[in-house]
Amino acid sequence: MENKKIAVIGLGYVGLPLARLFATKYSVVGFDINTERVSKLNQGHDDTLEVSDELLQSSLVKENPFSKNVNGLLCSSNLEDIKDANIYIITVPTPVDKNNRPVLTPLIKASETVGKVLSKGDIVVYESTVYPGATEEDCIPVVERVSGMKFNEDFFAGYSPERINPGDKEHTVDKILKVTSGSTPEIGKIVNDIYKSVITAGTHLAPTIKVAEAAKVIENSQRDINIAFVNELAKIFNLMDIDTHAVLEAAGTKWNFLPFKPGLVGGHCIGVDPYYLAQKAQEYGYHPEIILAGRRLNDSMGKYVAEQVVKAMIKKNINVNGAEVLMLGITFKENCPDVRNTKIVDVIAALEDFGVKVTTYDPWANPEEVIHEYGIASHQSLNANQKFDAVVLGVAHNEFKTLDINLLTKENVVVYDVKGILNTVDGRL
Question: What residues are labeled active site?
Fold first, then answer.
């Protein structure tokens, strides 16, 4: 396969940076069913802020690069624009439902899309996080059914798990080592070489697709369990009136101590991926105790934070019912607009159960997206005349580090710092 034409299916936090990077060396068409998203991208702006306007605009071409055989990126919602690709990379989300069961619908739909335009000899590479076996057992049969072709005879597959860190401008896609794999040893080498040509950090060719799938899903499960451990420590030390952050700082002086911090575990990876591994383990008759225990503890932290805030208010004789509380931040992490699976909403819901009136301020989050996803009104600016009974710092945006909280609060106030970045507070994890 000398003349590589790449189609990236799904232009979100993972797909767009990857498509832009590949476009520096290949003809690339990025496909997404969200026509509004595609229109904005072709105008040179990425709402997720993962790719700067300058970088995006320098990569865009106005005509299909496949036909001209030129390097560059075209974004499209037209299926016809990707039919001449010979490498299809699927980067759609893999969420869980309200019962924390894996939802493969976006992955199945994307597989159907590729099946409609697949040609003999093409390679389909999946990047979406899944449980081991999902690519070959759940996705490939869909491609076979729609295309009418036979796997590993007429078309081939690969798996290269995404390692995007939203909001991180230092560890960008090209600077994070990439795991690759293929459905045959020969295809594995082709897939590896394609990624290796643009990933400056290098690649690791796994022996099978299942190994690559398993490697990805345990990366975030490991982080989830470690964060659950320090969250439990925070609960214990709070009861003992010991500063958890001071304890972790002291323990961190040992060379092999892992520097995890307590917090709300949200987002589309750490708070989701362990459920994919747990689901598959249960299908094999094994109940994963540590993985699910970590998930339960981390999922409980939103309610715990709310209870700690209310306790602090009661100690200061602040009437909880009807109190005005300012929530600083609603994105799942600092300095990015991503609100997927944010656990701040758990804090807000628990506070409202106590009769508290919560005002949410986040200069990074899109208010329309927040109201659509969670039914919560989020503001990108504050009313200077409104004074609050309590302030909860939920996300460590840079803007909040220099915010003069005294100008926003009443004289008797509670300040609770979830992220541990403020100097004077009434409580923190």
Answer: 269
